[in-house]
Amino acid sequence: MAERIEAPGYARQVLEALEQGGCEAWFVGGCVRDSLMGRAPVDWDIAAGPGPVAIERALAGRYTLIRTGEKHGTVTALSAGRPVEITAFRAETGYADHRHPDAVRFVDRLDEDLARRDFTVNALAYHPRRGLVDRFGGQADLAAGVLRCVGDPGRRFAEDALRILRGLRFAACLGFSLEAQTARAAVENRELLREISRERVLGELEKLLCAPHAAQVLDAFPSVLFTVLPELSPMEHCTQEHPCHRGTVWQHTLWVLEAAPAEPVLRWAALLHDCGKPGTKTRGPDGIAHFYGHAAESEALAREICSGLRMSGREADRVCALVRCHGEVLPMAPKRVKKLLARLGEEDFFGLLELIRADWTGQATGLLEERLPALEETRRRAEDLLAQGACLGLGDLAVNGDDLLELGFAPGPGLGRALDRLLEAVLEDRLPNRRAALLEEARTLLGTGP
Ligand code: ATP
Ligand code: MG
Question: What is the pTM of this model?
Answer without folding.
Answer: 0.91
